[in-house]
Amino acid sequence: MTDGQITLTGIRAHANHGVLASERELGQTFSVDVSLDVDMDTVCDDLTHAVNYALVAQRVLDVLMGEPVNLIETLAGRIADAVLAISPRISSVQVTVHKPHAPVGVALDDVAVTCRKDAE
């Protein structure tokens, strides 16, 4: 086995996360980046011996579009937990949730929260 990394960037969905009633009602576009540290088999060319990143992307999307939360910190943690549960080959995950239209009262390009979790 080889230590490796899989990165998926820009998984997007319209979702209703946020503290304000308007965020819950109208929603907004969120974007998620995930980076997985994995035990990678670079010899066997068989998907059953790899982390299926299509499954990772779908799991991220499922959480992103799932039950609304107040804080993107909570959302990042839920996504990390869901990704870690996919395969024992995943030793850790880093999740960044982007909320470019966060209502913070000043002009900005993006608000992002990043969390990192290790498999237990």
Automatic annotation (TrEMBL):
SMART domains: FolB (SM00905). It is an enzyme of class 4 (lyase). GO terms for molecular function: dihydroneopterin aldolase activity. Residues 6-117 form the Dihydroneopterin aldolase/epimerase domain. The keyword Glycosyltransferase does not apply. It comes from the Bacteria. Pfam families: FolB. The keyword Transport does not apply. GO terms for cellular component: cytoplasm. Keywords: Folate biosynthesis, Lyase. Its EC number is 4.1.2.25. It catalyses: 7,8-dihydroneopterin = 6-hydroxymethyl-7,8-dihydropterin + glycolaldehyde. Pathway: Cofactor biosynthesis; tetrahydrofolate biosynthesis; 2-amino-4-hydroxy-6-hydroxymethyl-7,8-dihydropteridine diphosphate from 7,8-dihydroneopterin triphosphate: step 3/4. GO terms for biological process: folic acid biosynthetic process; tetrahydrofolate biosynthetic process. Catalyzes the conversion of 7,8-dihydroneopterin to 6-hydroxymethyl-7,8-dihydropterin. Belongs to the DHNA family. This is 7,8-dihydroneopterin aldolase.
